[in-house]
């Protein structure tokens, strides 16, 4: 018989919370990156790229590409 008790203090909860957030952030990042991988600009044939910033409000994705068209396509692809 084994009895294990874990006492969660405030720092334990904060640590767990940040781990969950980190995991969710990584999921979003890889999901968005996957989705825009196929996007090519119909005019220039270049791909779009994405950069993420994490703020207290959540995650912001910044799309960059050769022109507005590819950025629009990349944004649209992430909403699918
Ligand atoms: Zn272009």
List keywords for this structure.
alpha+beta, 80 residues, binds zinc ion, 2 strands
What does this structure look like?
The chain has a domain at 32-80. The longest helix has 28 residues, at 10-37. It has a two-stranded antiparallel sheet. Helix 1 (10-37) packs across helix 2 (68-79). It is 50% helix and 18% strand. The chain is an alpha+beta fold and 80 residues long. Strand 1 (49-55) and strand 2 form a beta hairpin. It binds zinc ion. Residues 41, 43-44, 46, 66-67, 69-70 line the site of zinc ion (ZN).
List strands and helices in order, with pairings.
Layout lengths: L9 H28 L11 E7 L2 E7 L3 H12 L1
Helix pairs in contact: 1-2
The structure holds zinc ion.
The site of zinc ion has 8 residues, from helix 2.
Give the gist of this structure.
The protein contains 2 helices and 2 strands; from the N terminus they run αββα.
Indicate the overall shape: elongated
* Content of β-strand: 15-25%
Strand order in the largest sheet? 1-2
Query: Which cofactor or ligand species appear?
Result: zinc ion
Give start-end ranges of low-pLDDT stretches: none
């Amino acid at each position: 018989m084994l009895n294990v008790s874990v006492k969660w203090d405030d720092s334990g909860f904060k640590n767990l919370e940040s781990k969950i957030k980190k995991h969710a952030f990584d999921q979003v990042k890889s999901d968005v990156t996957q989705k825009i991988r196929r996007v090519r600009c119909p005019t220039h044939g270049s791909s779009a790229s994405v950069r993420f910033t994490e703020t207290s409000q959540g995650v912001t994705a910044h799309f960059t590409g050769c022109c507005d068209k590819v950025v629009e396509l990349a944004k649209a692809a992430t909403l699918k």
